[in-house]
Amino acid sequence: MRATIHVSAAVVVSDDARTLVVRKRGARVFQQPGGKPDPGEDALAAVVREVAEETGIVAAPGDFVPLGRFTDAAANEPGHEVVADAFLLRVGPAEATASGEIEELRWLTEDDVPDTPLANLSRNHLIRFAWR
């Protein structure tokens, strides 16, 4: 059995139908903003904090819509699986800034997805929620 990593992740969608993905320092693939909850922190509190830390987008907990829990092979930890509590966050004219452990961020259209290197969890489960 593979080791499990629990995270919270946000599918951030701008009002012009683009979705935000981030690439962590040292990673080769992009994924939704998010990360591991701190001790005692629930999934919603973690995603609110992580989105603000990684992108500078500050949103209230009530702005996040739960999407469910998804599991796939971890992108940056070989031999691990990631279990993500995922949320949808719609934002207006979006401005984001890569900060903390984020080396690069991109706003993607649906047409950009096939040519963008994405983590398994993003490609197989989360990215589709941006255009529903």
Automatic annotation (TrEMBL):
Cleavable signal peptide: none
Keywords: Hydrolase
Cofactor: Mg(2+)
PROSITE patterns xrefs: NUDIX (PS51462), NUDIX_BOX (PS00893)
Keyword field contains Hydrolase: yes
InterPro entries: NUDIX_hydrolase-like_dom_sf (IPR015797), NUDIX_hydrolase_CS (IPR020084), NUDIX_hydrolase_dom (IPR000086)
Nudix hydrolase domain segment(s): 4-131
Top-rank taxon, per record: Bacteria
Official protein name in the record: NUDIX domain-containing protein
Species assigned in the record: Microbacterium aquimaris
